Amino acid sequence: MPEPFADLLKESVIFVNRDALSPHFMPDHLLFRDKQIASIVKALTPSLKGERGRNLFLYGKTGTGKTSCVRYVIEEVKKLPTVKAKISYINCRIYNSRYRVLSKIMGDHMPNYAKRGYGLVDIYERLMNWIEEDGKMLIVVLDEIDMVKDLDDMIYTLTRANSDIKAGGITLVGVSNKISFKEDLDPRSLSTLYETELVFPPYNSSELLAILQQRASVGLKSGMVDQSALNLAAAISARESGDARFAMKILSRAAEIVEEKHLRAVTTQEVEEASKSAEEEIAYELVSTLPEHQRLVIYAIALLTLQGSRYKKLTEGTETYLFSGEVYDKYVAITNSLSKDPKSSRWYRKYISDLEMQGLINTYESGKGIRGHTKLIKLAYSPEKIKHTVEKGLFKENEVEGKGAD
Questions:
Q1: What is the 3-state secondary structure (H, E, C) of 161-205?
Q2: Fewer beta carbons under 10 A from the terminal one: N or C of the chain?
Q3: What is the extent of the structural domain holding 230?
């Protein structure tokens, strides 16, 4: 067998269970989230008993345990013998429209019917009949709910359904990284929500350390990670955002470095090296999950950065500073080329603020020597990688090749 393939079959010198360092891994116990889990169970108890309850919305930054907690509750509920509710968990990054969400619900509970390719109205009516036939309570968990393109229509449809259902009902559980996402909703959608809200705080350094110790004990061989390395990984993650996912990425990448370089154990040196690549990886993942128009704005910034600002005095060495106005003009040109309606300059300024808050761009107020008062913008990460990330997730194949976007 050729040597590269033989290496694939070798036992890892450091990993016992690589998945244990993944954010998708479900440990036996979720540390420091007992209060949040109890709150979720309390909010869903009426629905689980077959009664109509309030909708529930979970908020918090990436890596604060929102998805893990709701998935943990779902798995525990499935073990109970007398639950009167049906549950659908939906990743809205994949099922990102009202039609896809309803189709996913049908696929979960009536797979034979879902395969027939019915339209939206037919699916809705069949879903209502299915709920009413024995008074079911349907709990719909919408993870990354703000990724749904026609969010107003979806929320209005699912919440108003309770007015059409004579027996049973639908309870929504929305999960979002943005506590402000409801500000974009139409008043008619907001009026139907009647929700309970739960905010997940970031983890602190000591909590992140305990989480890393828990995952390392399951995922890595004994003695293969120094305590000082775990301390540093926790400290870096706490300083950045209190993101447990980021902490686990650092540890996982540091372990891979040890394996690649045939080192003795994970030390602070490997953690420092891993943190740099983990930060970039998280940033590009974040870009791929931005709302559509925020992605188009950062795409405009990436394209202009690659082309160079038309204001030469703003380009110094390898760093390019862009006028906010020229970025907006580029954003409008891109949206028009894609037959989309550009948002107003007011919304554009909000998008710029959101992108800066997430650490994807840096902005500066113009100083002396530049006519007028404007905001200068600089991309915080590789424009080539930002461009590729947006194109891969947002455009069709012919658009990726550059038609109409440049």
A1: HHHHCCCCEEEEEEEECCCCHHHHCCHHHHCCCCEEEEECCCCCH
A2: N
A3: 3-16+203-285
